[in-house]
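As described in the Methods, two query proteins were run sequentially through the folding procedure within a single session, without resetting any intermediate state between them. The first query and its resulting structure tokens are shown here.
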Amino acid sequence: MWKETKVVKNVSQYNFDARFGVYATTDRGDKSILHIGDKEIALNKVLSVRSYGDKELVLVRDGSGGYDSMLYTKEGKLLNVVNNTIPSSYNTNLRYLNVFMLGGDDYDGCYNLVDIETGMAIFKEYVHGRELFVFNDMIFSNRDNTIIRYDWDGSIMWQHNYEPDFNVKINLGFVMEGVCGGKLWVKSELDRHEILLAIDVKTSELVKAFSDFDEDTNLPHCNLGRISGVHLNCKNDQILLSASEDHKPYMIILNAKTLEVVEKNERTINFDYLEGEEYGFRISEFYGDYITVKMGTYNSDVCNNSGFAVYNYKTKEVVLAHRLFTPEQSQDGLGISPLSPLHYSPNNSKILVHDRWNTLHIFEDVKE
């Protein structure tokens, strides 16, 4: 049975890791305490706590305006520190971090990758004006609608400007969703018009575009409505899309290898959230067979997600659901943080939920 077993104040929305139950508290003087294993470690202000493998990666301010990345074992032993790093995107390979230095007349800066485990730089020369992203074991950068894939010696494997592939203006920004099913997934957002690109990682070819207008491109295209959210499930080689058609919300699952639609359902789960009231939810994560969502009823707290649920999309059953705040508390501004991670794994006995008041709620599967 799942129960809330601990409440911790002064935890920012990215300063916890559900896999190992690690978190950092920060006081008003911007001093943090990292709670890891059975240790409490004093640090400068912590900005994020994330994990890969059996290691924890902690990003802290260095005291002079920059950032340091600190690598720990999950028990709290410090393994290495890399200075002058910048925050990583969520789906990237966390072992490889961007380091930054100013350079050039345009002040764009220069980037390189460093292996946090060895402290060694990956490229011999810095890359000007293009932040680097490592997905799986592949290196990319994205700027001005041009994506570059690099080899591990810094040489360019391919470079492609995707503007000519479309009949409308696009804006790929500079981040990417990630790599899944042999495709690089990138989303264009411009004037509320959204297009999802599936790009062959080997050739740079735009394999298919997904949007709500057939005339967007003359290349292979699929109209799945207006796409508002993209969630990669590399464990199952699937993509979960939050989309809407005629103002009706859907959840769409794609096979990332074949790009075929596996299923398309109304965006709802089989759960009575609050005595039959209609509710909406924000999808947080798609991992294995599970989708985690943050929920709120339309007539009281849809702007402040007051509860959460774990949904098995294969069995169509809710594994766990909990209302954290009452409608009255939601009206007063209490709610679950919209952007904080919400991770569930059947192999993990803890779920960590973060609210808007920087409080961390720890739920455990308590055996009775």
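Immediately afterward, the second query was submitted; its sequence and tokens are:
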Amino acid sequence: MTTVALRNRTLGAATLALSLLFSACGDDPLSPEMEILEELSGVWTATSFLVAPVSDPTNSTDLIVLGGTLQMNVSTDGEIVTTVSDPGSTDQSVDVGTLTVLSATELQIQTSPTSPSVQYTFSLAGNRLELSGRAPIQLGTDPAVDSNITAVLVR
């Protein structure tokens, strides 16, 4: 009897050890930032893109209403492809960069390796993304102007 009881305990301990080992090898839970990045992944199209010079914040212009376009394709690894056209232009610029989630309400976008990173506050509700930040904006051949940006994007 003692041998059987000892064998059952040994088998029980071995089974427990194996189950713990296999459960530890499962997928690691995602960090909160990675979970948000997964939620942000997809193709986003701007329905509003307000730009107001920092020097004159009451003078805002909605580039989408004027005929401009902005589309962002965000992948789960943080790559972002932005496609932009200025109002009145048929030319599109396409940039490949990175999107980094900094917190539950802040993210950083670098549209290309040579462009500066821009920090935005954001809110995400289902298929609606709102971004607010400050960046130099260049329209056409005009020089870039330090501007406040507010964008609404949908997917």
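Helices lie at 2-24, 32-40. We note this only descriptively and draw no conclusion about the first query from it.
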